[in-house]
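Sequence in, structure out.
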Amino acid sequence: MGKSRAIREDSMPATQPIRYIERTRAYYLALGYDNPYQWAHHDDTPFTPLKQPLSGASVAIVTTAAPYQADKGDQGPGAAYNASAKFYRVYRGSTATMPDLRISHIAIDRAHTSAEDIGTWFPLKALQRAVSGGRVGAVASHFYGLPSNRSQRTTLEQDCADLLAHCRGDGVDAAILVPNCPVCHQSTALAARTLEEAGIATVIMGCALDIVEHAGVPRFVFSDFPLGNSAGRPHDTASQDRTLSLALDLLEGATEPGTTAHSPLIWPGPPDWREDYSNPDRLSPEDLAKRRADFDKIKAVAQQQRDGS
């Protein structure tokens, strides 16, 4: 695997990113589930150099956000986990106007982000600004929604195949993949590998360093932010532009697979925010029991949605 290219500032605090694989394993064991999830892992990584100058390339966004569905309950800022709003097949949407996308259906860090600013998980405006500035040739005519599926087989055989067909059909030269939850990061990693094997250059912008690097991807921009902010800080256009710029740097300049750029940007919240996400050590027995009951309900709703999709 290739090198990890760190980009840091002296003012950055000496903290370690959340190890989501370990954290979620401990969390679900504490809830009483005794069959730890096996995350995708590969020893080799495909790599496709960008075939033309970025200034002449058509670049697409791949998101794990869901289209707003008015009949599916609360999906707005601050919404609780809403399994009813999930989707189970790749979808395709126009970039001619800003779509109404939400992330209430996945496990973002609800303690430290409210999902108020779509620019933190769907960098269409930042990409449009890059086109206006001459850095990128064009925003692809469509963006693509990628399901967050725990089944790696379904992701590879169904979702990645569908995504590749869309990208080929639309003449996409490169793709920026933007995950949100832990499983989203795995899904986009598998999708990036599929696109690269087919000759389409990719870069992931994400917040779960260990999951993405464990899977093995060509290019990755890591932001040490709460899940749900892969494209920059909320209500901070400069940070969103800078995060996208790091991704474009990798599309242009990475020379080997496994290249990770660490964003120098710092999350503005409390310094111990990393200790909260799915941390059983911070939950009482009563909290754990409630979360187990809630998770069982979520699984039941998701199964109903899946059966009806």
